[in-house]
Write a structure and sequence with these properties.
mainly beta; 8-stranded mixed beta sheet
Length: 121
């Protein structure tokens, strides 16, 4: 699979003092949900997550191609710039994402990706 999109929503979140980290690139922000109506269609996106609370830890990748969800894969190759993310998972999926975000969010994502990159085997 080769997934290409522009992420209009980019987030970096930490919990437990940085023991749990989640980074998300999503084509569109989540809509407000009205559970009494039909659910909105899935949104293209990629999520990186790591739980450092119980080592050893691997950064896992999950995604949505706009039709369905998949994931649980590890990173094989990753390249991050201020406006793009290029990722290959160990099972051969390729992701090319264009995005814009503020400097603080980018720095947090970059630090997380660099620490993940050091663990890529």
């Amino acid at each position: 699979m080769h997934l290409v999109f522009e992420a209009l929503e980019v987030t970096y979140n930490e919990a437990l003092g940085g023991d749990i980290i989640q980074v998300s690139f999503q084509e569109y922000p989540d809509p407000d949900l009205d559970y009494s109506k039909v659910m909105p269609p899935p949104i293209k996106g990629i999520v990186f997550s790591a739980n450092y609370e119980f080592p050893p830890c691997d950064t896992l990748v999950e995604w949505c191609d706009g039709e369905g969800y998949d994931g649980g894969q590890k990173i094989k190759e990753i390249n991050l710039t201020k406006t793009s993310l290029n990722l290959v998972t160990r099972n051969g999926n390729v992701f090319d994402v264009k995005f814009q975000t503020d400097d603080v969010t980018f720095e947090n994502i970059q630090n997380f990706v660099l620490s993940s990159k050091q663990r890529i085997a």
